[in-house]
């Protein structure tokens, strides 16, 4: 098991791993490996866009240690469970709008104390800003039309002046009338107007179709 340039992320061959925060427990059926008495969870890039971004060449400083993070679009908790592994001492606020997805996310948070789920709409950060406070890291994976706008509003509400972030842009959820390249270009411009700088960008093919990952900082 080798270390990578991202703290806490390990690699064996082409597979990524994180140290299991719940030894003996799987979150989404992922393989477990024990090496030198340490249990690792395989991080599946076909199930987690963040793992796909790492394999696509995300910036080396993308995942620094953080105190507080805000995750928009937690779904069932696949990706956020690996962030829980990486940042055991952080408070990770996870926003999910769907009650059906929120139930397994809530169950996961009962086993992992650093996950703090919020049943809320990511388009309305004013409703949870007081609970979340200022965060060092903002992650967004929501399949809605105004993805750039949602990211900007949450950054303005919660992201620290030196904060980092990742926007998983699903072009086909924005519109099917314009090309994905045009949508990515418009998103870059929208983020730039909000004072956000893009440090890295990568297509997530073949793991996720029509998705582009954008690494952002203030």
The overall strand count is 12
In CATH, the topology is named Rossmann fold
The shape, in one word, is globular
Class per helix and strand makeup: alpha/beta
Q: Could you say what the CATH architecture is?
A: 3-Layer(aba) Sandwich
State mean pLDDT (0 to 100 scale): 94
SSE series: EEEEEHEHEHEHEHEHHEE
Q: Enumerate how many helices there are, as a single number.
A: 7
Give the CATH class: Alpha Beta
Q: What is the strand content?
A: 25-35%
Number of domains: 1
**Radius of gyration from the CA trace?**
16 Å
Helix fraction, binned, reads: 25-40%
* Strand arrangement in the largest pleated sheet: 8-7-6-9-10-12-11
Distance between the termini: 34 Å
Main sheet overview = 7 strands, mixed
What topology does this entry show?
Layout: E1 2-3, E2 9-12, E3 15-19, E4 32-35, E5 38-43, H1 49-55, E6 68-72, H2 78-86, E7 91-96, H3 99-111, E8 115-119, H4 129-132, E9 135-140, H5 147-158, E10 159-170, H6 171-174, H7 180-193, E11 197-203, E12 211-217
Parallel strand pairs: 6-7, 6-9, 7-8, 9-10
Antiparallel strand pairs: 1-2, 2-3, 3-5, 4-5, 10-12, 11-12
């Amino acid at each position: 098991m080798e270390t990578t340039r991202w703290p806490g992320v390990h690699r064996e061959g082409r597979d990524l791993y994180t140290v299991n925060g719940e030894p003996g427990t799987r979150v989404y059926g992922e393989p477990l490996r024990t090496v030198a008495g340490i249990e690792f969870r395989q991080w599946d890039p076909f199930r987690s866009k963040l793992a796909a971004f790492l394999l696509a060449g995300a910036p080396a400083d993308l995942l620094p240690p953080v105190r507080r993070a805000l995750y928009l679009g937690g779904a069932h908790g696949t990706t956020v469970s690996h962030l829980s592994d990486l940042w055991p001492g952080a408070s990770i606020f996870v926003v999910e709008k769907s009650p059906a997805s929120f139930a397994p996310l809530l169950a996961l948070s009962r086993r992992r104390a650093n996950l703090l789920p919020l049943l809320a709409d990511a388009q309305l950060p004013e409703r949870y800003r007081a609970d979340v406070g200022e965060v060092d890291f903002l992650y967004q994976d929501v399949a809605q039309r105004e993805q750039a706008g949602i990211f900007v509003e949450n950054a303005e509400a919660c992201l620290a002046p030196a904060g980092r972030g990742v926007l998983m842009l699903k072009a086909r959820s924005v519109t099917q009338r314009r090309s994905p390249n045009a949508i990515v270009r418009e998103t870059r411009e929208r983020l730039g107007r909000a004072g956000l700088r893009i440090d890295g960008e990568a297509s997530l093919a073949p793991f996720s179709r029509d998705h582009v990952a954008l690494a952002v900082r203030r």
